[in-house]
Amino acid sequence: MKYLLKLACSVILTAAVGTSAGFAQGKFESEIKARKAIMTLYAWNLGQLAAMAKGEAEYNPEAAKTAAENIKILASMNNGAAWPQRSDSTALPGLTRAKVEAWTTYPESAEINKSLAEAATAMAAVAGDGLASVQANIGAIGGACSACHKKFRETQ
């Protein structure tokens, strides 16, 4: 009986150490996959608005409104679970381009996200009102995206 208890404890301890070692090594594939998916959705929706703003696509009030609403939803999501500590490009080279500064200067990245949410809310309120509204608001969204990427994303 004692032997079985020791064996069970040993198996549980080995599994726990193995699991925590995996996290310590930064095996955050699903988290990184989730945040890359979020960024892809940002790019898809922003691309539609940008094409309209630049005259590369015909202005469509419904499509503009939908894309702007999608960006607003993405910017207001709590996706903190997709950004665990040690899931940066230093810890996981080749897996992510997120710089460690996104965590070490956290209040700054949160402020940039706040500015994105504000810009997305403003765009969503007017995107269906005409091309001029999209053109007047696209820069604030692009500026917030750019500010975050310049500070917190490795170049390719």
Tell me what the structure shows.
The chain has 156 residues and is mainly alpha-helical. The protein has a single domain (33-74, 87-156), classed as Four Helix Bundle (Hemerythrin (Met), subunit A), CATH 1.20.120. It is 72% helix and 0% strand.
Q: Given the structure, what is the number of helices?
A: 6
Structural class: mainly alpha
Indicate how many domains the architecture comprises: 1
- Average pLDDT reading: 87
**Total beta-strand segments:** 0
Terminal CA distance reads 58 Å
What portion of residues is helical? Answer: over 70%
Low-confidence stretches: 1-24
Taken from the alpha-carbon principal axes, the silhouette is: elongated
Order of helices and strands: HHHHHH
Radius of gyration: 21 Å
Strand content: under 5%
Can you give me a brief rundown of this structure?
With 156 residues, this protein is mainly α. Helices cover 72% and strands 0% of the residues. The model is unreliable at 1-24 (pLDDT under 50).
Which helices and strands, and how do they pair?
Blueprint: H1 2-24, H2 29-54, H3 61-76, H4 101-104, H5 106-126, H6 131-152
